[in-house]
Amino acid sequence: MQDIMYQAGLVLEGGGMKGLYTAGVIDFFLDKGIAFSSVYGVSAGACSMCSYLSKQRGRARDVCIDYVDRWDYCSIASLLLTGDLFNVNLNYHLVPEYLNPYDYEAFQRYQGKAYSVATDIVSGKPVYFRIRDMRKDMTKIRASASLPFVSRNVPIGKGLYLDGGLSDSIPVQKSIMDGNRKNVVVMTKEMGFVRKATRGYMLRLAGLRYWRYPKVTELMMKRGEHYREQVAYVNRLQKSGQAFVIRPKGAVDVGRVEKNPQKLKALYQRGYRDAKACYRELLAFLEA
Length: 288
Fold this sequence. Notes:
Elements: E1 4-12, H1 20-32, E2 34-42, H2 44-53, H3 59-65, H4 76-82, H5 88-99, H6 104-108, E3 113-120, E4 126-130, H7 134-144, E5 154-156, E6 159-163, H8 172-177, E7 183-186, H9 200-209, H10 214-239, E8 243-246, H11 261-277, H12 279-287
């Protein structure tokens, strides 16, 4: 099927293993040849973005499910031995180079712009890394998906970075500022989801862990409020017809670090079904 590239932004929220929902949505897009001129990925959304732009159907799903039983995929052992809960060597080297090879050449044929969102831990501001060469820019994907406490700070250039969700969980405003009048937003949390305020003891731990980077603690303190504001903004855009939103219709019974492959497969299938169910409405939005 010949792809159709729409002059629109695609915004992919993070959410850890809840990203299997996004994997299902983007595989439906691949099946229908739907492409976007700009794609913005945050954390798990940035990881899914990689396989979407290389047109490797099923890869975003497989790399999240096939290795869950390995200690060096995501485990306390990995955290203690390497400083990263999600093992860097496996996830960003062995998987793309050997176990489930990434199609770097296919990515280079993508005609649009791709961005990975990370957080500068010194300034506390989001940084939108342009991904031009996936082989060279894989560290920018890793930075976006490096969760506080369970990941090492990621050096890029002269900066240090962590999870993009700390500063910009749903970067639709950035997409609009870049000139995208239409935006498709794939969210991993259901309507009505409320992000709880970070508990006091976690803030105290953050203050100790990131004492040199107080903006990290400040972001964690305000994260629940900031997320509610972003969701409200997305809802207003949806209501006014400026954004098309795909998200779970009910509660998602998958944890951020989920190990149950059946739950993960079910969430993937749910994302695929939800995208399929709104296909005609999506086309109407994109082609209007």
